[in-house]
Write a structure and sequence with these properties.
The protein is of the alpha+beta class. Among the domains are: about 180 residues, Jelly Rolls (Sandwich), CATH 2.60.120.260; about 270 residues, Alpha-Beta Barrel (TIM Barrel), CATH 3.20.20.80. The protein has an eight-stranded parallel beta sheet, with helices on one face. The chain has a six-stranded antiparallel beta sheet with strand order 3-2-4-9-6-7, with helices on one face. The radius of gyration is 25 Å and the shape is globular. About 50% of the residues are buried.
Length: about 675
């Protein structure tokens, strides 16, 4: 698997600990071990070793519920030769899910809780020359009591189990995913040796003049200081992207250098300078997403100590008042309904053409760079400019954001909160605060990151939260402290925006009280932006046949695998997401699965086309379109996705591709 190394080029010494030579066993002190893969998940290893059935088929995912309540242990032996240089050695896990203790040669070296932040453990004292063994003990999940302030019903009951974990809530059952809660070492592992300083978490602050012909730049990075000393830090900014692993380049477009004295109380490096005639980074179809390569090197009198390299896109991003908001000043203040919702890049306001994006798999360890490349190529080819990385999901591998930088795709990144009440637990709040800071520092140098958002639908009745809750205020404060130039939204939808509609004919939603024709509903859309909207449709017949037992494939029924794979009783009680009665309303009786899928997908495609074209026609009164949803993490029988699991476009994908083209004709 090709790796993305979080800005390290190259470290003084790295020993890759990924691979198929790990072992996993049940309990904190297993008596039996199974072959395991890292990155991966405990649940996938059980499946691969025939201890559990295929979780993507039938109702098999339910058979993994017992794995949530057990200890699991990983182990691996590796060889180590210290070499001549005295380095500071660290065992580094890019992410571990969820709570774990870590051992090296039977000595406990640390503990961690949280799904997304890096685990970095000093191990120089525990390493031996020759064979070493690392062991990781994953704890059972500790579920939260149900939220007292939230509106509890059958369709959001289980997600409250995870409300006090900094973990993907999608895993606790959603209208497009089963109750399937993975654990394990789901990102890369390595042994890393460093000299006196480790540079990490770069940030670039930019202040442009009025016409973007010049920019004042401030480059910052955090420093882990192992040797208090006087250093020199140099920043070289090269045009274009340099091949991975290559340091240096042609003459830099900008070079900055300054002395710095680093110690335990001063652990940030900072360089500032003006840059004229910058080549700007633009979103897809608005210009070239031009990238520079920044190379930051720190040296002492003995030579180079550490170097990091990262992409830089020079661009401004703002949310501004809608050009359509020309109303006269009111005699008394009133809530904003359509204000401050327009995105502007480099001073140019635009109608954003986006989609929502969820995890690519229910087993997060399976999401490798190849899967990411396939999905991001599909995003780019569909003319999509903005991805909302939904708060019930995950923080993706860095390669996801690197491709977004290269392709000109803006990222609306949400923190791991959604659709439940996250207040009430100080220990969870502390863990979430640490995770949020780590997420921001991991991603903040990417020009594709447009904004941070507290989470999904936090202020709805099923969640029970409010904008002034302590967790929301904490996330805003952390965002400002770690990345003061970027926007922070408390939650989506924000004032003036809406989530919905979700089906071809709306029933008791939005403007109308009863069943409403799709065209009428779209023509009456009142809000300024639509950050979730979509139409459900069946998946491809051949995909449904792969995930359902043969004796259940036809006819569809609101039970068994059809219900388990979200065809019925998924979002609301009854016929969602299959919408069988709706399809038969327009096409009459359906003779088989292929007939059903063709008709349903046709309704989804034309419905989404009309909806998104109407949103686009209404610019600047409506400022953006963001259908739910681009992808799904497993095979449902029906849903609002336009790319079926794992990466198969549905007809609706091609209508979005056409509707989002730079020039689209509609009537």
């Amino acid at each position: 698997m090709k790796k993305s190394r979080k800005n390290q080029v190259p470290a003084v010494s790295i020993i890759d600990l990924n691979g198929d030579d790990w072992y996993v066993g049940e309990g904190a002190h297993p008596t039996a071990w199974l072959p395991a893969r890292v990155p991966g998940n405990v649940q996938e290893d059980l499946w691969r070793n025939n201890k559990k059935p295929d979780p993507y088929f039938g109702e098999n995912a339910a058979e993994y519920r017992d794995t949530e309540k057990k200890f699991w242990s990983y182990k691996k032996a590796f060889m180590f030769a210290p070499g001549k240089n005295e380095l500071n050695w660290f065992l580094v896990f890019d992410s571990v899910d969820y709570k774990a203790d870590f051992f090296l040669n039977n000595e406990k070296i640390g503990s961690h809780e949280g799904m997304f932040s890096e685990v970095r453990l000093a191990v120089g004292h525990a390493l031996t020359s020759g064979c070493n063994e690392v062991k990781v003990v994953i704890h059972p999940l500790a579920f939260a009591p149900h939220a007292s302030r939230a509106h509890i019903n059958k369709y959001c009951l289980h997600r409250h189990d995870g409300r006090w974990m900094a973990k993907s809530l999608m895993s606790f059952d959603w209208d497009f995913a089963p109750r399937f809660v993975p654990t394990g070492i789901w990102k890369d592992v390595r042994l890393e040796g460093k000299n006196g300083v480790r540079l990490h978490s770069p940030r670039v602050d930019m202040t442009f003049n009025s016409d973007h012909s010049s920019v004042d730049l401030v480059f910052l990075a955090d420093a882990d200081v192992f040797e208090h000393n006087d250093y020199t830090v140099r920043l070289s900014l090269y045009e274009g992207t340099l091949p991975r692993g290559k340091t240096g380049g042609p003459k830099p477009a900008l070079r900055l250098e300054a002395p710095v004295s680093l110690n335990a109380f001063n652990n940030e490096v900072k360089l500032a300078g003006a840059f004229k005639k910058p080549k700007l980074w633009w979103p897809l179809n608005m210009g070239v997403p031009f990238l520079y390569t920044a190379e930051m090197t720190i040296r002492n009198r003995r030579g180079e100590v550490d170097t990091i390299r990262f992409n830089v896109g020079l661009r401004s991003f703002k949310m501004i008042r809608s050009p359509a908001d020309s109303q006269a000043a009111l005699p008394l203040p009133s809530p904003a309904l359509n204000n401050e919702t327009v995105m502007a890049v480099n001073g140019r306001a635009f109608f954003y053409k986006g989609v929502n994006f969820v995890p690519m798999d229910i087993l997060f360890g399976r999401i490798d760079n190849a899967r990411i490349k396939t999905q991001m190529d599909l995003v780019k080819d569909a003319n999509i400019q903005l991805l909302r990385v939904w708060g019930g999901g995950i923080v993706n591998r860095d390669y996801f954001y690197e491709l977004a930088d290269q392709y000109g795709i803006l990222i609306w990144q949400e923190f791991p909160l959604g659709c439940t009440d996250h207040e009430g637990n100080p220990q969870y709040r502390d863990i979430l605060g640490h995770e949020a800071g780590a997420i921001i520092k991991q991603l903040r140098h990417h020009p594709s990151i447009a904004l941070w958002c507290g989470g999904n639908e936090l202020f709805q009745p099923q969640s029970g939260m409010a904008p002034f809750d302590r967790i929301i205020r904490m996330l805003g404060a952390i965002s400002y402290e770690c990345d003061p130039e970027r926007i922070f939204f408390p939650s989506s939808p924000y004032p003036g925006a809406l989530h919905g509609p979700y089906t071809f004919d709306m029933h008791g939603a939005g403007l109308h009280g009863g069943s409403v024709d799709h065209v009428q509903y779209c023509n009456d859309l009142p809000n300024g932006a639509y950050n979730e909207c979509g139409i459900s449709g069946a998946e491809h017949a051949w995909l449904i046949e792969k995930c359902l037992p043969k004796d259940e494939i036809w006819p569809p029924a609101p039970k068994g695998s059809w219900e388990f794979h979200k065809g019925f009783n998924a979002w609301q009680k009854g016929d969602s997401w299959m919408c069988l009665a709706l399809v038969e309303k327009y096409f009459g009786p359906l003779k088989d699965l292929a007939d059903l899928c063709r008709a349903s997908q046709f309704l989804q495609a034309i419905g989404l086309q009309y909806l998104c074209e109407e949103l686009r026609r209404r610019w600047p009164n409506i400022t953006g379109s963001m259908p739910w949803c681009f992808n799904y993490p497993w095979t449902t029988v029906a849903g609002s996705d336009i790319v079926a699991y794992p990466d198969v476009p549905k007809p609706a994908y091609f209508t979005i591709q056409k509707t989002y083209a730079p020039l689209a004709v509609s009537a």
